[in-house]
Design goal:
A hairpin with a 2-residue loop joins strand 1 and strand 2. Among the domains are: about 60 residues; about 60 residues, no CATH class. Helices cover about 80% and strands about 0% of the residues. The protein has about 200 residues and is mainly alpha-helical.
Length: about 200
Amino acid sequence: MSKHRAKKKQRQRARGAGATATKPVAAAAPSPASAGARGERAERRASARDASSRRRAAAPAGTPPRHPSRSEVRDGIPRPDAIWAPFPLTEIGMAVGIVLFLAGFASGGSRGVWLLTIGVVILTVVVAELCLREHFAGFRSHSLLLGLLPVVTVHMLVVLLVTSRWRGPVVLVADLALAGGLTWWLQGRFRLAQARARR
């Protein structure tokens, strides 16, 4: 009877040991599979993120580079900005001058003359500022225009304010000589500014 009990206890202990030995195995058995599935999903998400980031990074690089136009860069020299940039004061001045000029031209009479004169003055100031800025920055040469503009202005002021007899061939030769000298000097200034801007 004692032998039977001893054998029974041994069988129970063997079954208990087998159960405890198989439990971790059974518990651990699904763990690698689930971990592997989770790892595969994480790898797929990471590869998808990497692919999308590569596409985003490659999109700007794949686009052809933008070449600046001659209105922005000329002979390797960028267009100089005005001191009031980015406020479009030059463009506003041009628009106002053109509107006043056209309004004076269409109106007629003394009012039209005043509007026409104010429009011409505004346009002259705006264009002169733009030409001076581009010329002395080495961007574009305006030697002839800048040489003629002060001579014409002085001639008109003398005729309007001093005497209307400021005319004739002698005055014309004097005006052309003065404009030619100013043009030659301005061309030299432009070459120096251009060489300085290319350094």
